[in-house]
Amino acid sequence: MSGNDAYIQISDISKHFGAVKAVDSVNFSIASGEFFSLLGSSGCGKTTLLRLLAGFEAPTKGEVYIDGAPMSQVAPHKRPTNMVFQNYAIFPHLNVEANLAYGLRYDKIEKSEMNKRVEEALEMVQLAGYGKRRSNELSGGQRQRVALARALIKRPKVLLLDEPLGALDKKLREEMQLELRALQEAVGITFIFVTHDQEEALTLSDRIAVMARGQTLQIASPKELYNNPVSVEVAEFIGQMNFVNASVVDVKSGKAVLETAGLGKITASTSKSFVQKGNDIVVAIRPEQLSLRDKPARGQHGVKGTMKTSAYLGDRSHVYVSVEGREQALAVSAQEGTGSVGGLDRGSDVYVTWSDEALILLPH
Amino acid sequence: MSGNDAYIQISDISKHFGAVKAVDSVNFSIASGEFFSLLGSSGCGKTTLLRLLAGFEAPTKGEVYIDGAPMSQVAPHKRPTNMVFQNYAIFPHLNVEANLAYGLRYDKIEKSEMNKRVEEALEMVQLAGYGKRRSNELSGGQRQRVALARALIKRPKVLLLDEPLGALDKKLREEMQLELRALQEAVGITFIFVTHDQEEALTLSDRIAVMARGQTLQIASPKELYNNPVSVEVAEFIGQMNFVNASVVDVKSGKAVLETAGLGKITASTSKSFVQKGNDIVVAIRPEQLSLRDKPARGQHGVKGTMKTSAYLGDRSHVYVSVEGREQALAVSAQEGTGSVGGLDRGSDVYVTWSDEALILLPH
Amino acid sequence: MSEPSYIDRPNRPLYAYAMFYLAFLYIPILFLPLFSFNDSTYIAFPLKGFTFEWYEQMFSDAPMGAALVNSLKVGAVASVFATLLGVFAAKAVTRYHIPGKRPIVFVIMLPLVVPGILLGVALLILMKQIGVQLSLITVTIGHILICVPFAMATLIPRFEGFDKSMEEASADLGANAISTFWRVTLPMVLPGIIASMLLCFTISFDEFIIAFMLNGSEKTLPIHIFSQLRFPARLPPVLALGSAIIAISFVVVFFSQWLRRYGVDDKPSLGI
Amino acid sequence: MSEPSYIDRPNRPLYAYAMFYLAFLYIPILFLPLFSFNDSTYIAFPLKGFTFEWYEQMFSDAPMGAALVNSLKVGAVASVFATLLGVFAAKAVTRYHIPGKRPIVFVIMLPLVVPGILLGVALLILMKQIGVQLSLITVTIGHILICVPFAMATLIPRFEGFDKSMEEASADLGANAISTFWRVTLPMVLPGIIASMLLCFTISFDEFIIAFMLNGSEKTLPIHIFSQLRFPARLPPVLALGSAIIAISFVVVFFSQWLRRYGVDDKPSLGI
Questions:
Q1: Residue D73: partners with Cβ closer than 8 Å, 6 or more residues away
Q2: What is residue B110's three-state secondary structure?
């Protein structure tokens, strides 16, 4: 992550389609060399934002700066960006080589240099020898690689990726994630990556912008997003989470006393401004921060419940525990082999415990 | 899991399409009330097998028995099975109620009874009040529920499900998995579930048949499949796995000495017949069975490596460690918060350790 | 999400082109209503005045009325039979696994490219050989022959867009093959069937040369119009009739477009 | 995976139906080649013997040759212009965001339902009014008019099947709008363009009534054939010509079907 911290500047940009605000006053910067993800469910505006960067859409308001230069009057074919399309958009009437060379003509490069660069690009994406094939003779993963090579061969300052792994199956997607990250580190340019898959965003990104309704909800590193989401909406989107409604009974010297629905009266340390006496708040706890015991643990917060069901996931299980005062069961992630749930059957009584630091306080 | 252990008997069944053996001499039984999954990648024959059970395909060879009765001469509309289709196949020209009532006409049920059952079914899938809607006015999850209700309202002995959750997004899919499992427990009939998603199969099933090339590779409970796969192919398909080529140097009283590519000379306890002196075998280790340390651990097997990259997943990270003698990096699953990888940077030396019981020996 | 994008910006040349295109298509057609209200037996500018006379003449013209009724009869019968033949053929081509689907489509398409006059000659020879008297029936047979490929062309995309699992779901729920056809297949392809009937009716109603060669004593409307063209004085009522036909066609096309909204495919596509 | 399924089992009634269908479509057409080789000026059973005489007569028939050349000329020009008009219109309808796409398709479809004889009358009036002499040019204009909707119908699915992101990818890689059109859009819709030209050519080549009304001294082939029908002795060479046309059509249709294999959509569909 070298270089300019505001290499790309998105300045108060909006894009309206009729009455629909696809992108709504978005402001942020991306550093050069960063792997930046736009994360959100479909319709959140992430793709529109990417298309604004590529120049396929003109902003209704605001400006995009790349390396200091305003972009709104620059046509897509003149921008220092290249894009990997969701469906790859590989020209079906051209073979792989011709697809890769397609854009080089406009860079006024000699024929021999062009061939050399095509060869290099094919090698980079591990497709040497596939140059004469057509799109319909390639597998999904190979197409994805061709699209990547075709964009990177132009040596863009910024690579835009529109859910490039969405069409691949799970095993291949995980493989390609590793490759993509390695590639980004090798070429060193800025990647802007659109995805709806939070796990993919966590795995790949230096920073993530979580989007909804055309706006950014939180822009932070994966760890920060996972451990300190700013709202229930973000917390819901990233990983699994238990939410507990609570009201603040008292706040004293950084310690809050909370009356919760289902977990009883608990205390949590906090410095957040919305945690004030009388306010309703939400307490969030990750399933892996909860433990199951067959009897109450001393010195730890805990609640008694009934084991409802469990989902086996191989390396761990998710156990669902019904607790009085709550409609939704608490999800508890249990490591396999640790024995903590070994002896427990459905319907049996269990104690769910947690430590104070595991509690995340969020505004209602 | 009450009742008959061989409620459904699949007896040496084959289905050929021209030269393609879609299903190739498959034999197994399903108990009544079981949640049984057919798991495999596309083209493995799982859907064809399901369609043989439904009667949409006639077997080339073999017979299916349901509750003792041979099925090959029974037309689909007379079988005690109902199916939830992959695309749901909800009749677009009928509303939800009419879709649900569609099949009841053939059961010679009175109009008032019919209405009662439609109401009940709608409630069962939490769609009360949606009866007048059409397919295109429903969300993906609602369609899935309608398809489920339309099949269950017929009170089949066996419900066949063809990747019913494949079209849903991840969060919804996880929710529907829990609902589906709860529903199966409530109605108590046999579910046969086709999926290519191994995590889904692990979560839902009592037993799983892993399929490839029209054959069953292994039929076992989720835990058995995860902990004791019978072959590299099965182990590759279920969860993440590190594979290490090895040759057997010596076998003595249940202990095998193995010379491995990358992990050095190791010992493993085994009673498997293919582990014989001189044989080439494969050692498999789950990423969560490997640990990272900054110095060699006493009394434990371990190997020195270089940390290559890591993928953050929120509740855990996958760390990839290059080891001399191996091309592929070892994947190590590290719990977040345990601190074991906290101080490690890319490129730094680490020790990967494991316990003897973690090793799974597989035929080459 | 991505409505008007960079590449899709509308531009001025396009609008100019659209205007030219519409003018080219419609100016000739608009001559018919224009002169049908002109108070002169001479079809020439300048226009003289407004009149309903030609429409009145049209309504009191008994041979013209008879010809219209003939055309409606032939069109109705031909469209029903051609569509019926087309439904089964389209079902067969798209649903059953006949070896070599492509040659079959080929074989069905071929009659489309045989010039109407040659088909007329061929049918004339056939009718003479088997001793059938020329009449509206022979005209109808000729029209069924030329309509079937169009019916197929309309119906095949319907049957292709039709999801096979719908029929399987019906069987799975207890319906036999006949019940499935009536309760699922037919309702789902109905818009296509109606579109096919409308198209076939239009083709039959408009067709001239085959009707000309195969008709007996009863004329269809285009043949009647043709026979009137020799007498300039009879032209204005023909224009009135033509205008009425265009107006009715307008309604029919509108209705068939509206029908296409409903059902399997929602893309705007031509009725052919 | 799921090739022949329960519901799709081929059955005997289907084959019987297919036979009937083919007989219905082809028996009339097959009369032409049959009698074209029959050694008798009378078109009647029983057949007399095998002869090439009618084919020889056909080749030495100068007016027929002239008519054929006229038809080829008119067909070639009409198909090129109609397709050109159609390409831009189809591109506009499918790619640009014109408000109300459906009414536009409607407007384009409408001329299809106007009976040819009325279009002929309308064009005749127009030509007379603007003082244009009737000739092959007026015939060609009439044919362009009737071909454009068919060209659109052929091209619109091509442009719809065309993935917009291909053009965006081209722009993204540095190509301007013109370069994108030549290097991406055109190659990808080329099969559709050729199919449209073949279809328009066929329509023009087969068309009778408009050509009949708008032609001057030079006749197109259907009109020439029509004029020969009055003389029974001239019928056998017409049959020979008809057989030759059918044979050539066969090749053209085969070629156009083969073309459809290449390119965007691989589904078997009719050329219309």
A1: D136
A2: coil
Domain of A304: which CATH number?
Answer: 2.40.50.100
Q: Say if residue B143 is in the same domain as residue B269.
A: no
The answer to whether residue C269 is domain-embedded is no
Model confidence at D271, pLDDT cuts 50, 70, 90, reads very low
Which of B209, B236, B263 is the C-terminal boundary of a domain?
Answer: B236
C6 occurs within a structural domain:
no
Q: Do B17 and D7 touch (CB under 8 A)?
A: no
Contact A56 C1 (CB under 8 A): no
Residues C30-55 as b or e (16 or more Cβ within 10 Å = b): ebbbbbbbbeeeebeeeeeeeeebbb
ipTM value of the model? Answer: 0.76
Same domain, yes or no: B344 and B256: yes
Query: Along the 364 residues of chain B, how does pLDDT read in single tens digits?
Result: 445 778 999 999 999 988 889 999 999 999 999 999 999 988 899 999 999 999 999 999 999 999 999 998 899 999 999 999 999 999 999 999 999 999 999 988 889 999 999 999 999 888 988 999 998 899 888 999 999 999 999 999 999 999 998 878 777 888 888 889 888 988 899 999 999 999 999 999 999 999 999 999 999 999 999 999 999 999 999 988 999 999 999 888 888 899 988 888 888 888 888 888 888 999 999 999 998 888 777 767 788 899 888 888 888 888 999 998 888 889 998 876 554 455 567 788 888 988 888 899 999 8
Same domain as B297, residue B205: no
Tracing tokens 């835990």 back to the chain, one arrives at B223
CB count in 10 Å sphere of residue D175 = 22
Q: Report the side by side order of strands in the sheet with B301-312.
A: B291-293, B349-354, B301-312, B316-323, B330-335
Chain B neighbours, 3+ Cβ pairs < 8 A? A, C, D
Separation of CA C212 from chain center: 18
**Which of A56, A92, A107 is facing D174, going by the closest CB pair?**
A107
Q: Is the pLDDT of residue A122 over 50?
A: yes
How many domains, chain B?
2
The answer on pLDDT for C219 being more than 50 is yes
Contact A75 D176 (CB under 8 A): yes
CA gap A83, A53 in Å, rounded: 10
Q: Which residues pair with A210 in a beta bridge?
A: A39, A218
Which residue in the set B57, B58, B75 is minimally distant from D2, CB to CB? B57
Identify whether residues B109 and B66 lie together within a single domain: yes
Q: Which residues of A touch C7 (CB under 8 A)?
A: 56
CATH number, domain of B160, equals 3.40.50.300
The answer on B154 and B293 residing in a single domain is: no
Per the listing, tokens 């054929």 go with: D68
Residue B81 in contact with partner chain D when CB distance is under 8 A? no
In this complex, do C165 and B92 lie within 8 Å of one another by their Cβ atoms?
A: no
The CATH number assigned to the domain holding D167 equals 1.10.3720.10
- Determine, yes or no, domain membership for D159: yes
**Does C5 reside within a domain?**
no
- From B219, B236, B253, give the residue that closes a domain: B236
Q: Are residues B27 and B153 in the same domain?
A: yes
Query: What is the extent of the structural domain holding A217?
Result: 3-236
Q: Does the beta-carbon distance from A93 to D188 stay under 8 Å?
A: yes
Q: Please state the domain count of chain C.
A: 1
User: Cβ of D168 and A81 within 8 Å?
Assistant: no
Residues B249 and B216 in one domain: no
CB of C166 within 8 A of CB of B91? yes
Quick check: B55 and D5 CB within 8 A? no
Neighbors of chain A with 3 or more C-beta pairs under 8 Å: B, C, D
A87 shares a domain with A147 = yes
Give the span between the Cα atoms of C240 and C64, in whole angstroms. Answer: 12
Whether residue C108 has pLDDT greater than 90? no
Contact list in D for residue A91 (CB cut-off 8 A) is 166, 169-170, 184, 188
Residue-range definition of the domain harbouring residue C125:
12-261
